[in-house]
Every structure is written in structure tokens, then in C-alpha cells.
Amino acid sequence: MDSSQAAATAVTGGSGGNGLISQANDTAAVTASDDPKQNLNQVINSIQKTLGLLHQLYLTVSSFNAASQLPLLQRLNSLVMELDNMVKIAEKSSIQVPMEVLNLIDDGKNPDEFTRDVINSCISKNQITKGKTDAFKGLRRHLLEELEQAFPDEVESYREIRAASAAELKRLAQSQSILPNGDMKVKSEL
To answer: Is the dihedral of CA 154, 160, 163, 165 positive or negative?
Structure first.
């Protein structure tokens, strides 16, 4: 029995129950939580239950006879209630999926392609930005060399002021839990 069948069995209460008790518990769980992680878990569970119910419904329909009419109706009702539950969960969730991902899924492609493309785009933009930063550093270094030849005393005082300022910023950053690159330190979740 795979996870979708196990989820469906749990929803229908074992062998063909109507799933009313499980549905009532799911609705209570939906109203009790506002945590985004919990909402995501509820969405995942609801999707798994829906997939399990659809699988059971497929099995019931594919071997339909007059005796299987009641289980078919019960499974249809369970599916409708789970879809209703999914709508309630969706109202409380703020999960955002880019339209590009949905379009890829509609086209029958793997949504991981979108992630790969976004990462590759970020890498190329990062390389361009790094190149610009390196160019400005080279320009700054060249200007300082030229200024040092023309105005050695002023450049020396500039470097002293710059070193003092950098030391002060470093002390300030350490006292405020700011990383040297400007990011804030964040406690890791356990």
C-alpha cells in the first residue's frame, strides 16, 4: 500500500467508510493553526488525501457493478468534502506559485526546469555584478596609485581615516549582530 492509498484509507476510515469523522477532524485542524509551516503541511496532506481518494475512486469506477454503487457514492462524497477542505486551507494559506511554473506543468514539463532556469539566471547576473564590482575595485586601486604619486600626504591621511572608519564600523556591526556584508545574524531554528 503506497502513501496515497494509506492516506485514502485513513480518510475513508478503513474499508469503505464515509470519512465523516476524519473530515471533521481535518476541519478543526484547519481552524486551529495560522502557522505558515503548518498551513503548508496541511496543504500537502490534503493533496495526498485527494490523490488517494481519486485513486480509490478510479479503482471503484473501473470495476463498477450494481453492488459497488454505495461505495462509489461514499467515495465521491469523501472527495467532495476533501476538496472543500482544500478550499478552506487555501483561504488561510499564502502560498504563491509563479505562473511560469503552472504554465510548465500545463505544458507537461517538469517544474524543476523553472527552478534550474532561475538559478542559472541568478548565477549569470551574479557574475555580471561581480565583474562590475571587480572593475570598480580596479579603478579605485588605480586612482589611489595615481593620487599617491601626485598627493602622497593626502592619500596617507585618507588611508588612516578609512582604516579608522572601517574599524569603527566593524565594532558597531559586532555590537549589533550585523555581519560584515551588512546582513543581520538570525538564530537558526532547531
So the answer is: negative
| Residue 164 confidence (pLDDT) | 94
**Predicted local distance difference test score (pLDDT) of residue 170:** 85
Taken in order 144, 148, 150, 156, is the CA torsion positive or negative? Answer: positive
Q: Are 185 and 177 in contact (CB under 8 A)?
A: yes
Task: Give Cα separations from 6 to 23, 39, 45, 50 (angstroms).
Answer: 15, 21, 12, 12
CA–CA separation, 96 and 113 (whole Å): 18
- In one-letter notation, the amino acid at residue 35 is D
Residue 136 is predicted with a pLDDT of 96
Nearest 5°: CA angle at 62, between 61 and 63?
Answer: 90
DSSP assignment, residue 182? S
Distances (CA, A) of 166 to 52, 66, 145, 173: 60, 83, 20, 10
Task: At 179, list the grid cell.
Answer: 555581519
| Alpha helices for 64-151 (secondary structure H) | 69-92, 99-106, 112-150
Cβ-contact 74, 17 below 8 angstroms? yes
Q: Which segment, 68-72, 91-95, 161-165, is predicted with the most confidence on average? A: 161-165
CB 78 within 8 A of CB 18: yes
pLDDT of residue 14: 43
